[in-house]
Amino acid sequence: MAEDAMLKFVGRGQVYPAKREAELRAEDFREIAERYAVPDAEAQAGRCSQCGVPYCSVHCPLHNHIPDWLRLTAEGRLREAYELSNSTSTMPEICGRICPQDRLCEGNCVIEFSGHGAVTIGSVEKFITDTAWEEGWVEPVRVGPARGQSAGIIGAGPAGLAAAEYLREMGYDVAVYDRHDRAGGLLTYGIPGFKLEKSVVMRRVARLEEAGIAFHLGFEVGRDASLDDLRRRHDTILIATGVYKTRAIKAPGVGAEGVVEALDYLTASNRKSFGDAVPAFDDGSLDAAGKHVVVIGGGDTAMDCVRTAIRQGAESVKCLYRRDRANMPGSQREVANAEEEGVEFVWLSAPEAFDGGDRVEGVRAARMRLGAPDASGRRAPELDPGSEFRLPADLVIKALGFEAEDLPRLFGAPELGVTRWGTVRTDGKTMMTSLDGVFAAGDIVRGASLVVWGIRDGRDVSAHMHAWMRAHAKASVAA
Q1: Does the pLDDT at position 3 exceed 50?
Q2: Do 180 and 143 form a contact (C-beta atoms < 8 A)?
Q3: Are 347 and 324 in contact, with CB atoms under 8 Å apart?
């Protein structure tokens, strides 16, 4: 391997390029993977102390049996390790790639507390499941005996896909409806390919299709059918749409050309990776190549945007965030990765206006300072008077997070109960909405959250839907 393409280890025991990925040959990555994957996975797994209280499992939303499959991996019993990992998660290789382990399992590893660095749980989880796919250990969905009842699922993201798999295993007919032309939701279009290869998502979807789950893509509830239409078509309904409405910025010039939504930007990049025609990318509107890019926001979506811009060959990439590093909601590991790749963070800063008239040319911003804690205990940012400054920008990406769309209006279901934030209101015990037989799960209930929580919600709600359908089947027979 050429000297200027040398690789180095950072963070979670993963391999990162010292230069942009585009400057390294694909065979270089294969060589590194083949050379280090097995020894690193087994060595990392062997570091687990098998502590009496498995804090890693406790802090995993899925409560995966982490110490047990780490022990099996360390012993070279990879198939058993995969089967145990797969028993609590429908997408272990996806969680292994994109979960913020530094805030969950790895962040609560006893070895991390002792100052010796956490076991790299995520990379081991990814490795054992990728190995299972390569070796043919991933079995088809085991479809249960037909029950003569069906479930309709609105949304093909993590919660919807997880629920679909569990319900199909129980023997229900399952149909999934999604507005996009591919299943996966944000897994497909919202997360960059360098974090989550799209082939990894598509093979999971293909496995569900092979199990007889029907996917109705390019299907919008409210346009192609109302919620009532779907309720008449199925015995029960799950709303798992996620949250896609971008939080707005109120500032002069925000409507200028070149000020774009994070999801539009990431979707364009992901569509290009599929080989789709993307006019807004091809004409440069959603391509960062050669541009001065400013990303506004501090969450994981903002990190996805800055790192995508670097890979597209941006001239410069700056991330503007109104709080300091310690109060950033995104993964600290992602921040470190972004800095290593050349992103500049402008902490304690917020946009006040966008210069340039019809076409953005810069961002006028002001310095912030952290004031007294708010009701949640988090220190609220305050404007620091007289601290204005300007950043040149050809492309500004708004990444301030996502909110719920107005589903009662979109679905033609004004009786669907929602919270003051627009998320769907559900019963805390049954996960049912205000409509009988209609359930909801994932981000549309809890607000923008983690993929792993979506999978957990999909697992939980499938059990409630099963109980509801079984009770109604018995009532029908009794009648």
Answers
A1: no
A2: no
A3: yes
Per DSSP, the three-state class of 206 is: helix
Amino acid found at 144: G
pLDDT in tens, 65-88: 999 999 999 999 999 999 999 999
Give ∠ CA 429-435-439 in degrees, rounded to 5. Answer: 50
Phi, psi of 225 (to 5 degrees): -170, 150
DSSP secondary-structure letter at 198? Answer: H
- The kind and range of the H/E element at 370 are strand 362-373
pLDDT value at position 375?
77
Cα–Cα distance measured from residue 93 to residue 78, given in angstroms and rounded to the nearest whole number: 14
Q: The whole model's pTM is what?
A: 0.89
How far is 299 from 331, CA to CA, in rounded Å? 8
Percentages (nearest 5) of helix, strand, coil residues in the chain: 40, 20, 40
Q: How many CA atoms lie within 13 A of 450 on its CB side?
A: 19
What is the DSSP pairing of strand 379-392 with strand 362-373? antiparallel
* Phi–psi pair at 209, nearest 5 degrees: -65, -40
What angle, 0 to 180 degrees and rounded to 10, lies between the N-to-C axes of helices 26-46 and 66-74?
A: 110
Closest to 136 in 3D by CA, of 75, 77, 79: 79
Please give the C-alpha separations between residue 381 and each of 247, 310, 326, 369, 416, in angstroms, as whole numbers: 18, 28, 13, 5, 36
Helix boundaries (H) for 327-446? 332-340, 407-410, 443-446
DSSP 252: T
Count Cα atoms within 13 angstroms, Cβ side, for 340.
16
Question: Alpha-carbon distance 149 to 284, whole Å?
Answer: 49
Count of C-beta atoms within a 10 Å radius of residue 83: 17
- What number of other Cβ atoms are within 10 A of residue 71's Cβ? 18
Q: How far apart are the C-alpha atoms of 74 and 277, rounded to whole Å?
A: 45
